[in-house]
């Protein structure tokens, strides 16, 4: 987490002070690597620290914080666009250093997980951490469960070879395909390039940024649905429902845009028509927000 936050901080600074396109590219590389570290380490940390009965909800909170961050970024872009001096884009990019700095400083005070400490034969420290995060001295049962799981994992010879055995192939395929298909849904294109998409639909610059704020707000609101339902309905139900919803509205959005723009990319779109497309995009985003919780432990 600390390394990821530090790399992201470097990327934000480079983008904020960039005086050529190369610096922007390099900054984006640092941002991407930093996000990669954080997106893998934080869910794992939460899973190992959370009580088993709350693990699902606490991991969905990770997704919730991501959606809130996207919404804040949209609001920052909306505000920085109003700066007429020509440096608003620098402010927009440089402000990414704020959450990165919070991660670096905050993670420095976090304890290691009991699982990691037990795997490292630091049993005394593991018990101390369990007592601290559970708020009770009655941690023997949980400590023993973690210890048994750790001992069992150490008995496995050549784990990387074993995981490739035939009986584990369905698990490997599922673990690889779900994140891949998540990206192929196009959600990142919609969220990252929403202002460009809305401009194409005929919105002005300010209106396109405002529409991006709306989709960001829908993203946050829909994630609260996931927080409420993930442990009650289960991950599978949310994933199936969300995938169907995304498919339906993605087809509708594509059809509406194709009907107006065709292959020319140029058309006059009425306001009601454009609002209808935005509504369908919001439904697509909502389907993603309450279903694709792939990092849940």
Automatic annotation (TrEMBL):
<dbReference type="InterPro" id="IPR003663">
    <property type="entry name" value="Sugar/inositol_transpt"/>
</dbReference>
<dbReference type="InterPro" id="IPR045262">
    <property type="entry name" value="STP/PLT_plant"/>
</dbReference>
<dbReference type="InterPro" id="IPR036259">
    <property type="entry name" value="MFS_trans_sf"/>
</dbReference>
<feature type="transmembrane region" description="Helical">
    <location>
        <begin position="88"/>
        <end position="110"/>
    </location>
</feature>
<feature type="domain" description="Major facilitator superfamily (MFS) profile">
    <location>
        <begin position="1"/>
        <end position="297"/>
    </location>
</feature>
<comment type="similarity">
    <text>Belongs to the major facilitator superfamily. Sugar transporter (TC 2.A.1.1) family.</text>
</comment>
<keyword id="KW-0813">Transport</keyword>
<dbReference type="GO" id="GO:0015144">
    <property type="term" value="F:carbohydrate transmembrane transporter activity"/>
</dbReference>
<dbReference type="Pfam" id="PF00083">
    <property type="entry name" value="Sugar_tr"/>
</dbReference>
<keyword id="KW-0472">Membrane</keyword>
<feature type="transmembrane region" description="Helical">
    <location>
        <begin position="28"/>
        <end position="46"/>
    </location>
</feature>
<dbReference type="GO" id="GO:0015293">
    <property type="term" value="F:symporter activity"/>
</dbReference>
<protein>
    <recommendedName>
        <fullName>Major facilitator superfamily (MFS) profile domain-containing protein</fullName>
    </recommendedName>
</protein>
<feature type="transmembrane region" description="Helical">
    <location>
        <begin position="208"/>
        <end position="230"/>
    </location>
</feature>
<feature type="transmembrane region" description="Helical">
    <location>
        <begin position="172"/>
        <end position="196"/>
    </location>
</feature>
<feature type="transmembrane region" description="Helical">
    <location>
        <begin position="273"/>
        <end position="296"/>
    </location>
</feature>
<dbReference type="InterPro" id="IPR005828">
    <property type="entry name" value="MFS_sugar_transport-like"/>
</dbReference>
<keyword id="KW-1133">Transmembrane helix</keyword>
<feature type="transmembrane region" description="Helical">
    <location>
        <begin position="237"/>
        <end position="261"/>
    </location>
</feature>
<feature type="transmembrane region" description="Helical">
    <location>
        <begin position="58"/>
        <end position="76"/>
    </location>
</feature>
<keyword id="KW-0769">Symport</keyword>
<keyword id="KW-0812">Transmembrane</keyword>
<keyword id="KW-0762">Sugar transport</keyword>
<dbReference type="InterPro" id="IPR020846">
    <property type="entry name" value="MFS_dom"/>
</dbReference>
<dbReference type="GO" id="GO:0016020">
    <property type="term" value="C:membrane"/>
</dbReference>
<dbReference type="InterPro" id="IPR005829">
    <property type="entry name" value="Sugar_transporter_CS"/>
</dbReference>
């Amino acid at each position: 987490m600390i390394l990821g936050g530090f790399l992201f901080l470097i990327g934000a600074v480079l983008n904020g002070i960039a005086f050529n396109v190369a610096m922007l590219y390099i900054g984006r590389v640092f941002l991407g690597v930093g996000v990669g570290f954080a997106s893998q380490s934080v869910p794992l940390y939460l899973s190992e620290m959370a009580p088993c009965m709350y693990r699902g909800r606490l991991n969905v909170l990770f997704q919730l914080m991501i959606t809130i961050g996207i919404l804040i970024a949209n609001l920052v872009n909306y505000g920085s666009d109003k700066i007429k001096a020509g440096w608003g884009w620098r402010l927009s990019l440089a402000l990414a250093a704020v959450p990165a700095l919070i991660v670096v400083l905050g993670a420095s005070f976090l304890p290691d997980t009991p699982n990691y400490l037990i795997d490292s034969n630091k049993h005394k420290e593991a018990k101390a951490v369990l007592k601290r995060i559970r708020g009770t001295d009655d941690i023997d049962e949980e400590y023993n469960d973690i210890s048994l799981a750790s001992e069992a994992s150490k008995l496995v010879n050549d784990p990387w070879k074993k995981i490739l055995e035939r009986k584990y192939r369905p698990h490997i395929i599922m673990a690889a395909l779900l994140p891949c298909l998540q990206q192929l849904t196009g959600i990142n294109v919609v969220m990252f390039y929403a202002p460009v998409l809305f401009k194409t639909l005929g919105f002005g610059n300010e209106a396109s940024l405002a529409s991006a704020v709306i989709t960001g707000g829908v993203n946050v609101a829909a994630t609260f649905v996931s927080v409420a339902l993930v442990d009650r309905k289960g991950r599978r139900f949310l994933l199936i429902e969300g995938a169907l919803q995304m498919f339906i509205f993605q087809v509708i959005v594509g059809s509406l845009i194709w009907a107006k723009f065709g292959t020319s990319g140029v058309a006059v779109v009425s306001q009601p028509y454009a609002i209808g497309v935005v509504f369908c995009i919001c439904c697509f985003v909502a389907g993603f927000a309450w279903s694709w919780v792939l990092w849940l432990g």
